[in-house]
Structures are given as C-alpha cells and as structure tokens.
Amino acid sequence: MSMTRTTRTRRPGKPTAKAGRGSAGPISFFIALFIVALGAIQLVSTFYTYALTVSDLNGLKRQEAALEAEKQDLENEIKRWDDEAYVTAQARERLGFVFPGEQAVRVLHPEAVTGQTDAERQQDNDASDSQSLPWYEELAYSFEQVDRQDTSAGDTGESARQQPQSQTDTTDTSGEE
C-alpha cells in the first residue's frame, strides 16, 4: 500500500481567495465611506446655498413690495399737485398766501392764545402720534388728567369750583319757581 499524497498545486496566475479578500476589503470599505462622506458634504452644501438664495429672494421681494408702495404714494402725491384746490391749500398753509381782499393774520406768540409753548405743543403732537388710544380709554385718561389738575390746584381751585356750582344751583332753583 502505498500512500499517496494528493497535494494541490498552486497555479501562478491565480491568487488564492483568502489572500485577495484580506487585503482589499478594508481599503475598499474606507474608499466607499470617503466617497459617501464627500457626497453628503456636497449635498448639504448645495441645500445650504439654496436656502440662502431663497432667503435673499424673499428679502428682495419684500423690498420690491415696499418700493412699489412708495412709488404709488409718490405718484398719488404728484396727482394731488395737479388739483387746483390742493395747490391753493398748500400755498395758504405753507407759504401764507391769501386771495385778494383777504387779510392775513399771523399770531406772533401762539402760546399767548393757546397757553402752550412750542415745546409743549410738539410733545403733545408726538404723544398723540405715538399713542392712539380707543375713545373710551382717551376719555378715562382725560378724566384722570382733570382730576390731577384739580388736586394740584389745591384750595384755590376748589373754591373756584364751588362758586360756579352754587351759581348753577341758584339759577336752577330760580328757573323752577
């Protein structure tokens, strides 16, 4: 009995399966991972650029709408100046023009007439422009202001307040008789 050994011989042109998988597997995995990462970065960058562009576009649309509104206001202003009555009113208000036969009266010291200085009048105009209250709140506010003025006036204001009330009471009773 002869023992024969069967041995496999290796062919020179064909590598074994074990040697090929062991060295190429991790390298191909990392190359594929690197390509996927680059693709993801490129995709995120593209979406970010798109979002910025859409944001800029929306801002430009808002700016365009504001400019269109301003343009319409200016065109309306130009049309107003074509109206003879508007031009007359502006000439009277801004330049103090009067028609022949009229007399212009200019008050040199308006605080003598109104009791307010220019600074107080400007503050009142600013306050009324910045705060527009409903009518019922304005009414309550005016009552509070009157009450404050009455309490700050003290006795002099109170005696002045009582005198007209007594006169009205007298006239009321005399009217009934």
TrEMBL record:
<feature type="compositionally biased region" description="Low complexity">
    <location>
        <begin position="162"/>
        <end position="177"/>
    </location>
</feature>
<dbReference type="Pfam" id="PF04977">
    <property type="entry name" value="DivIC"/>
</dbReference>
<keyword id="KW-0175">Coiled coil</keyword>
<feature type="region of interest" description="Disordered">
    <location>
        <begin position="1"/>
        <end position="22"/>
    </location>
</feature>
<dbReference type="InterPro" id="IPR007060">
    <property type="entry name" value="FtsL/DivIC"/>
</dbReference>
<keyword id="KW-0812">Transmembrane</keyword>
<feature type="region of interest" description="Disordered">
    <location>
        <begin position="114"/>
        <end position="177"/>
    </location>
</feature>
<keyword id="KW-1133">Transmembrane helix</keyword>
<protein>
    <recommendedName>
        <fullName>Septum formation initiator</fullName>
    </recommendedName>
</protein>
<feature type="transmembrane region" description="Helical">
    <location>
        <begin position="27"/>
        <end position="51"/>
    </location>
</feature>
<keyword id="KW-0472">Membrane</keyword>
<feature type="coiled-coil region">
    <location>
        <begin position="57"/>
        <end position="84"/>
    </location>
</feature>
